[in-house]
Amino acid sequence: MGRVGSLQTEPPDLTRHVATLDAIERAMCAGDCYDDLDDALRSILDVCAEALGCAYSGLMVLDMHDGELTGRLILQPKTTKSLCSAGLQPPVAQWLLQLDLTQSLVARVFLEHRTRVVSCLHDLTRPHWDAYAVHLVQRSLGITSIALAPMLTGGECLGVVAAAFDKAQAVAEWHLTVLRLFARCAAASIKHADLSRTLVDREQQVSHLLKATIDAQERERERICLEIHDGVTQTLAAAHHYVQVVDSYPQLPEGVRPHIHRAGTLVRTAIREARELIATLRPAALDTLGLVVTLRNEMEDLGAQTGMCIEFEADEVRFAKATETALYRIMREAVTNVTKHARASRVAVRVKQARDRILVEVQDDGVGFDPAAEARQPTPHKVGLLSMRKRVELLGGALTLVSRPTEGTLVRVEVPLPAHSSPAVERVAVCEVAEEAL
Ligand SMILES: Nc1ncnc2c1ncn2[C@@H]1O[C@H](COP(=O)(O)OP(=O)(O)OP(=O)(O)O)[C@@H](O)[C@H]1O
Ligand SMILES: [Mg+2]
């Protein structure tokens, strides 16, 4: 086991204090500055060596699995260079080491969460390092003592940082204190990278799930539309036909004809309701005539029903079915929000195609609201804006919401045009109940 050297007790001077704090701050920021974790760790090792004034630094990211401790060695770039120029190939940075739990000092630091100082490199990881290689490394680099600190975060140890000193230096108490801080910075970077990776994975899973749910919902809507159209509506149309046959008899018992007329009216109402249900679930025109025509017709109807002045401005374009469906759902929600919340007198609905982008907007002159306040207080029963955002995200686009109380609202959606965008006009439920029969 390595000998613990005698430690100096003098505190460093003020200039060194400031430099040390500056180095610690840079180490704390390393995780934000590098996309790659190993690059962040190497930069922490650089500033650690600079702050301690030590000759070399390195660390091991350790993993305990099934009672076995393995470590990935990461060295300060200067250390790797020195090893290479001393002819020690391949660079040890590539080594994945298995450590002896009872004999390796790195393992002890990892398990006991204690800082240590050792005078012989061989003690660090023995017995797995070849003694001759260790001797070579130590002699080539002139290392006399090595300080080790556990990389702790939240009570968990993720590895060990080592600072190697050459002959000119003795390891002081402050070296160990500062080394412990750098070890914590390295641990925080690893944890941060782990959490970021987990978050990205989860987000991807949620997006996949959401897309699958939305696709399934659209398929289910199409299926229900077809069921209603081919089932209930056809039956009602047939019933209406027989009502008309009965009504065509010139001689009917006294008082029967008003009942027949009443039956005819009820059947026609049921057919109309079935058609409205189909249109609400998935307007047939969306598949046959496309997004622009469907929206134009619906906006005309809405204007007539509500008295709002609706300005509809659109390029005569068609997009792939999935894109048109998603944009239709987004715009319908934006328009529904106008009718539900805005108390607007004017609404503008726009669909534009730039070279490689689709731009859609719904703008009203209503009461407006504070989108930031809405986002701060998510309410489980308010899902419209959230679902709009998610749909836009799945299309790879961006949603901008501009609104202020009393100043109206603009919903602006920009999505990339899919590379092979061809209008996929497919036959779906088209309510073909014979108009002439009604
Ligand atoms: N055009 C608008 N004008 C004024 N307020 C709006 C407008 N659009 C959204 N809001 C405000 O934002 C809130 C959130 O909208 P969101 O669509 O998420 O929920 P919702 O419409 O209340 O419920 P739903 O889940 O049925 O859509 C609304 O309750 C409303 O206060
Ligand atoms: Mg809504």
Task: Provide structural commentary.
- With about 450 residues, the protein is of the alpha+beta class.
- It folds into 2 domains: about 15-195, Beta-Lactamase (2-Layer Sandwich), CATH 3.30.450.40; about 290-420, Histidine kinase-like ATPase, C-terminal domain (Heat Shock Protein 90, 2-Layer Sandwich), CATH 3.30.565.10.
- The protein is built from 13 helices and 11 strands.
- The chain has helices at about 15-35, 35-50, 75-85, 105-110, 120-125, 130-140, 175-245, 255-280, 285-290, 290-305, 320-340, 370-375, 385-395; strands at about 55-65, 70-75, 95-100, 115-120, 145-155, 155-165, 310-315, 345-355, 355-365, 400-405, 410-415.
- The strands form 2 sheets. It has a 6-stranded antiparallel sheet, with helices on both faces. It has a 5-stranded mixed sheet with strand order 7-8-9-11-10, covered by helices on one side.
- β1 (about 55-65) and β2 (about 70-75) form a beta hairpin.
- α1 runs antiparallel to α2, α2 (about 35-50) packs antiparallel against α7 (about 175-245) and α11 packs antiparallel against α13 (about 385-395).
- Bound molecules: adenosine-5'-triphosphate and magnesium ion (MG).
- Magnesium ion (MG) binds next to α11.
Q: Would you summarize the structure shown here?
A:
With about 450 residues, the chain is of the alpha+beta class.
